[in-house]
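Case study B.
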Amino acid sequence: MTTGVRRRMGVEERRQQLIGVALELFSRRSPDEVSIDEIASAAGISRPLVYHYFPGKLSLYEAALKRASDDLASRFVEPHEGPLGARLLRVMSRFFDFVDEHGPGFSALMRGGPAVGSSTTNALIDSVRQAAYVQILSHLRVEDPPARLELVVRSWISLAESTALIWLDGRRIPRAELEVQLVHDFAALAAVSAAYDEELTALLRRLLKDEPAEGPFSDLVSRLIALAS
Amino acid sequence: MTTGVRRRMGVEERRQQLIGVALELFSRRSPDEVSIDEIASAAGISRPLVYHYFPGKLSLYEAALKRASDDLASRFVEPHEGPLGARLLRVMSRFFDFVDEHGPGFSALMRGGPAVGSSTTNALIDSVRQAAYVQILSHLRVEDPPARLELVVRSWISLAESTALIWLDGRRIPRAELEVQLVHDFAALAAVSAAYDEELTALLRRLLKDEPAEGPFSDLVSRLIALAS
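Model:
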């Protein structure tokens, strides 16, 4: 059965290898610029053989994006232990790791573009947003969120996306600073919303009372007080 | 020259009429669901005549989107007079008017989708974001923004978009409340960023010193103090 030095891969193994190679290329450059020839060459196989496993570049792109989406969603999972601010900060650090690893591909995907705007890719983006939303609610210990809390969480998720995209465009602000800033932004957006809503106020008080004096939330409050003075 | 009761339109006049009819239809339902037949019928002309003016649905969609983009960008223009909070609140009110008028089309466009993800549509979306960004900087009287201020303004613009999209999905929060909330969010995001940056702190102090005691910014501060107590 062996026709050469290289071991023959099974169908699924070959598919997975191609997805990995493609994801690496789609991450480092805009997917528009990556050709099937290049993917074939990087995988060490012929162009027709790539087409044997994937009907075209879009289906390979979607498979790579599915793997990246699963990877990102898994980084949102955080033990339900310790202060909330510290938990969110750890997730932000893993989120920026992901963004860093997949920079050009992440930008191209999130900014939209001819090759990347299929309904499958949009559904994958939405599934990652939904995974983030579900994780945050579970940490807030809220099952049936009121409309204003849902708005705070979902709009903060979009703020995290746009902050990461702006960071990628020149990296002019240290990412560690942005990770803390996004934790603070969450508290600030929740506080703005809570200022008009008693249910949110009660929730925010419950969450903040367990925050340590040296945590990111307390740090924000003392800095804002200094700013206002 | 008159072949019927209806007056013959000139080419440019007919194009403009078709764009208006199409924009109306694309605004009220997802553009995917609007057919050329329907546009022809609403404009009172034959389907082949529509194709005489526009090669296909995408080009008519892009022309309608261009008109809507120009309309939205024009709503950002606000006289440079009076307190900043009140100016931003008036712009938010006009922004929600626009979102209200174009609801389903706005959602479909901003959430992406098969029919609406061309490079032309993405460029139009970016041009509206850039128009908002330029307007805000001009009101802040900043010509060459530091990276942290650029981040605050651009990420707040994306927050305004996502807030509007979430509002459209069920309209469970009164829009007037969200208009005020977005003004507050701007102040909160700027304050979070300023807590780590002296240049932004100085800018924020300069901006806030002209805010009236009964304006939206002062209102926020007193509500937040009440929340923290």
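Chain A touches chain B through 47 residues (CB under 8 Å). The remaining cases will be described in the next quarterly update.
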